[in-house]
């Protein structure tokens, strides 16, 4: 990789094998509960030594998050979780190590965000047409300046105004009003990431929920024959012990990098996890992190 400031820290990073890291987390910039500063303060309290905040399709916030981490003395690895599709399969892709100020991934993310925002406004208009009223809209959407920004915003409005008892009910209502997931092409995203000197990791291949594709080894073989991913997220809270062993063996067999993350949204059951740096050692070394 080209020499660049990958973590937002002016000091070279050296970790021990048992250092606490988490390479997959979200803030209010995408679908997390906490703003970046609150999450970083928590991570410092819990003595994490290196993290990556990987908000969905948000490269535009990485530099400011890294600057906040530098100010508070927490190294933050440049990362993003891109929403993609391959052969009609919804596929989340973690990208690490790009330059936040100069990369080609931003163009892909901008296109996704533009289409997401268009759909978000269309769904909102349809909900209002159907008789839903949101008098507290600015208050509920305070994290995004009181304005619609993310697809999940309409679901939050429905819940906070008493139209939906939980997230699943709200999701059903916005789907009925025309919500759909906007996804970039996986091949295009990986190409842009590699041109940006980033590493591409298939996120949570063993998930079965939210329409995200469950990648079995045969399906992984097919994907890898077409798209040159660099690794897979082996350690994820939705992966059973058996799934972890399956994907760990697969990564070893095919010389893929391994990542580990909590996929934290700062909610009960989805908090950051102190994961041993050793689990992602090869990936971190590829990104220039040294080990003592």
Properties at a glance:
six-stranded mixed β-sheet; alpha/beta; three-stranded mixed β-sheet; TIM Barrel; 292 residues
Which helices and strands occur, and which strands form pairs?
Blueprint: E1 14-15, E2 20-22, H1 36-45, E3 50-51, H2 62-72, E4 79-86, E5 89-96, H3 105-129, H4 137-140, H5 152-160, H6 167-176, E6 184-185, H7 186-195, E7 199-202, H8 217-226, E8 231-235, H9 241-253, E9 257-260, E10 275-276, H10 281-286, E11 290-291
Parallel strand pairs: 1-11, 2-3, 4-6, 7-8, 8-9
Antiparallel strand pairs: 2-10, 4-5, 5-7
Helix pairs in contact: 1-2, 5-6
Question: Please, could you describe this protein's structure?
Answer:
- By secondary structure, this protein is of the alpha/beta class.
- It folds into 2 domains: 14-97 and 184-291, TIM Barrel (Alpha-Beta Barrel), CATH 3.20.20; 110-176, no CATH class.
- 37% of the residues lie in helices and 14% in strands.
- It contains 10 helices and 11 strands.
- It has helices at residues 36-45, 62-72, 105-129, 137-140, 152-160, 167-176, 186-195, 217-226, 241-253, 281-286, and strands at 14-15, 20-22, 50-51, 79-86, 89-96, 184-185, 199-202, 231-235, 257-260, 275-276, 290-291.
- Strands 6-4-5-7-8-9 form a 6-stranded mixed β-sheet. Strands 3-2-10 form a 3-stranded mixed β-sheet, with no helix packed on it.
- Strand 2, helix 1 and strand 3 (50-51) form a beta-alpha-beta unit.
- Helix 1 (36-45) runs parallel beside helix 2 (62-72) and helix 5 packs across helix 6 (167-176).
- The longest helix is centred in the middle third of the chain and has 25 residues, at 105-129.
- The radius of gyration is 19 Å and the shape is globular.
- The two termini are 21 Å apart.
- The model has no long low-confidence stretch (mean pLDDT 94).
């Amino acid at each position: 990789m080209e020499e660049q400031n990958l973590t937002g820290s002016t000091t070279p990073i050296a970790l021990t094998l048992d250092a606490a890291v988490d390479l997959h987390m979200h803030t209010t910039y995408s679908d997390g509960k906490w703003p970046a500063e609150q999450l970083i303060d928590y991570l410092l309290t819990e003595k994490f030594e290196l993290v990556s905040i990987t908000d969905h399709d948000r490269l535009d916030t990485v530099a400011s998050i890294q600057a906040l981490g530098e100010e508070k003395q927490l190294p933050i690895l440049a990362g993003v979780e891109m929403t993609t599709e391959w052969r009609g399969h919804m596929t989340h892709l973690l990208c690490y190590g790009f330059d936040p100020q100069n990369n080609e991934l931003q163009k892909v993310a901008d296109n996704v965000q533009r289409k997401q925002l268009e759909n978000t406004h269309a769904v909102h208009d349809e909900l209002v047409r159907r008789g839903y009223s949101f008098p507290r809209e600015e208050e509920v959407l305070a994290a995004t300046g009181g304005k619609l920004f993310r697809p999940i915003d309409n679901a939050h409005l429905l819940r906070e105004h008493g139209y939906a008892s939980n997230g699943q009910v709200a999701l059903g209502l916005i789907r009925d009003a025309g919500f759909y997931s906007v996804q970039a092409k996986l091949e295009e995203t990986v190409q842009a990431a590699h041109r940006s000197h980033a590493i591409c990791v298939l996120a949570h291949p063993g998930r079965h929920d939210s329409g995200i594709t469950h990648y079995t080894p045969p399906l992984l073989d097919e994907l890898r024959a077409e798209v040159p991913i660099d690794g897979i997220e082996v350690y994820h809270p939705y992966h059973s012990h058996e799934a972890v062993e399956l994907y760990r063996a697969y990564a070893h067999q095919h010389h893929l990098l391994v990542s580990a993350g909590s996929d934290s949204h700062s909610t009960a059951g989805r908090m950051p996890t102190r994961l041993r740096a050793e689990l992602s050692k090869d990936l971190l070394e590829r990104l220039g992190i040294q080990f003592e």
